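Q: Given only this backbone (588 positions), what sequence would you predict?
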């Protein structure tokens, strides 16, 4: 009995294993079949339609001048995008001026300029519609118009019939096509509309396609769709209409990039988005990782192949133009995208470049960066020194590791301040910066009354009063330093201590080193490291700087915020002089 029972159990186990294996094989085959079906839908190439100049500028905190828009357009053309949406003529004087100047000043090599607007008004005619007239007056070959695709919005927002909603869209497209324009139709709320009433959404899209729209762009206007929804809806619309479909996605669920890739897998041939994901609310889908993923991961052509390596520089230049700090963690192009902190990772990376990097950073114009912190081992220090061209012997490396741990305990954080780290490592070899030597500095912070302003009334003086507008804040910095054998004393004024110190330093050495005229401080951050210590707490200051082509970060730490700022400021200037090959004074 025991033998028979054992055999039965063994047989059952074998059968179960066989079934499990068959189920696993079946599941694997199904997965491969789904992947093959998706691959069959995925186009060989995708058009990149950039709307940074319009949708991107809707991000709170961004305000572009006409000159900004022209400069960004040139960067986008340099990158190789297919379409640049310039704005909405007639909506504001700035966009009117942009299109007027673009016609005279923009010489685009790869991109086509597109104009954006809406369909005709409810109950109106295309011939008398001012929006359509402005679109034609802009003079671009490509026009993108937005129209309602959700029945709820047609009846609720436009307060008109569903038939009129279709007529508004189709007649507007036909009017523009008859005027010789290529028309893209942005189907507003396309995904929400399709979820609620797919028949009406398809009716709108079919009507504009028949009227001559070359791209049916499905917009996730509220940004609430998820990747599986985007895939299913795009696939169904492509199958139903057989017309070229695009996607315009927002990032409200954090799925903007994933949604774009899902849309392409389902058959979309155009992706509308913005550089760095700028846009209203939480932003539009970020074209930077979308382009990289499509080109490098999915085998879908986007930019001209030789332009892909411009992604990092264009991303950072656009960030500078919109006055928005670049995201160091931005995929592919962020300064931390290929940064390695742990010693084990760094050591392995030295042997095999692909051990801890999903692509070669050079493919997108970025680079590997070794971050040095208290976690760093000998490999990290040696690799960082090699990256910087600094020769270190074994004893110096060991000393650097111990000093690094001590400094980070005191509050320094070199992993975010590469420029200060480089200067510190060079100093460990005996190097001294030759451009200037500080004797002393002093900062005075005060307020003075405008000429003719009434003095404080007795008993009402204090830190803030109703007539404070009559008081002017003033910071004045005095610096004593040496440039070679010349002793210089300069005074600088500013709207704060750091600004005053910066101006005083520029006044002291600017005539000797014209290179510093290109150095601009772009960001200033202060962090209190020990809040429990109150006003006696140690502060850490980080300063971001740029010379127009490079960006760098320096650090200062002190119980005195002005002293910490001065340390970071001096490091910024010294690093800038070092990397611009500034000539040291005679005898230095």
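A: Predicted residues:
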């Amino acid at each position: 009995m025991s033998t028979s029972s054992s055999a039965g159990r063994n047989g059952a186990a074998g059968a179960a294993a066989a079934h499990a294996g068959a189920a696993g094989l079946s599941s694997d085959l199904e997965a491969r079949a789904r992947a093959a079906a998706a691959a069959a839908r995925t186009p060989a190439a995708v058009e990149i339609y950039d709307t940074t100049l319009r949708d991107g500028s809707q991000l709170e905190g961004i305000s572009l001048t006409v000159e900004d828009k022209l400069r960004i357009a040139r960067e986008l053309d340099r990158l190789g995008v297919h379409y640049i949406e310039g704005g909405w003529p007639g909506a504001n004087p700035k966009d009117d001026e942009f299109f007027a100047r673009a016609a005279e000043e923009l010489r685009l090599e790869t991109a086509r300029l597109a104009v954006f607007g809406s369909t005709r008004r409810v109950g109106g005619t295309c011939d008398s519609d001012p929006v359509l007239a402005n679109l034609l007056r802009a003079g671009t070959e490509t026009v993108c118009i937005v129209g309602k695709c959700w029945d709820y919005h047609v009846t609720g927002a436009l307060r008109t019939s569903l038939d009129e909603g279709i007529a508004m869209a189709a007649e507007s497209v036909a009017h523009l096509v008859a005027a010789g324009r290529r028309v893209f139709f942005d189907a507003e709320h396309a995904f929400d509309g399709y979820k609620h009433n797919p028949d009406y959404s398809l009716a709108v899209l079919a009507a504009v396609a028949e009227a001559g729209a070359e791209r049916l762009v499905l917009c996730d206007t509220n940004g609430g769709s998820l990747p599986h929804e985007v895939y299913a809806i795009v696939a169904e619309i492509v199958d139903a209409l057989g017309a070229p479909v695009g996607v315009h996605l927002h990032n409200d669920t954090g799925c903007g990039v994933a949604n774009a890739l899902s849309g392409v897998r389902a058959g979309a041939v155009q992706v509308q988005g913005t550089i760095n994901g700028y846009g209203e609310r939480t932003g539009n889908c970020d074209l930077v990782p979308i382009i990289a993923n499509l080109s490098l991961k999915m085998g879908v052509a986007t930019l001209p192949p030789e332009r892909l390596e411009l992604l990092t520089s264009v991303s950072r230049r656009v960030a500078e133009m919109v006055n928005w700090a670049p995201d160091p963690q931005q995929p592919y192009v962020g300064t931390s995208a290929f940064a390695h902190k742990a010693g084990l990772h760094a050591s392995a990376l030295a042997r095999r470049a692909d051990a801890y990097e999903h692509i070669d950073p050079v493919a997108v114009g970025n680079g590997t960066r070794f971050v040095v912190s208290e976690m760093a081992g000998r490999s990290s220090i040696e690799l960082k020194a090699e990256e910087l061209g600094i020769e270190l012997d074994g004893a110096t490396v060991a000393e650097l590791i111990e000093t690094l741990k001590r400094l980070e305990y005191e509050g320094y954080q070199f992993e975010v301040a590469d420029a200060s780290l480089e200067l510190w490592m060079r100093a460990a070899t005996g190097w001294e910066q030759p451009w200037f030597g500080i004797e002393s500095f002093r900062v005075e912070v005060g307020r003075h009354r405008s000429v003719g302003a009434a003095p404080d009334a007795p008993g009402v003086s204090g830190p803030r009063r109703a007539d404070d507008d009559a008081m002017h804040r003033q910071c004045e910095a005095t610096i004593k330093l040496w440039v070679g054998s010349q002793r210089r004393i300069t005074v600088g004024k500013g709207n704060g201590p750091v600004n005053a110190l910066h101006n005083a330093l520029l006044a002291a050495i600017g005539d000797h080193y014209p290179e510093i005229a290109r150095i601009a401080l772009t960001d200033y951050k202060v962090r209190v490291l020990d809040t429990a210590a109150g006003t006696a707490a140690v502060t850490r200051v980080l300063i971001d700087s740029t010379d127009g082509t490079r960006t760098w970060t320096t650090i200062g730490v002190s119980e005195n915020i002005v002293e910490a700022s001065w340390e970071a400021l001096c490091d910024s200037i010294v690093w800038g002089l070092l990397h611009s090959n500034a000539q040291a004074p005679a005898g230095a």
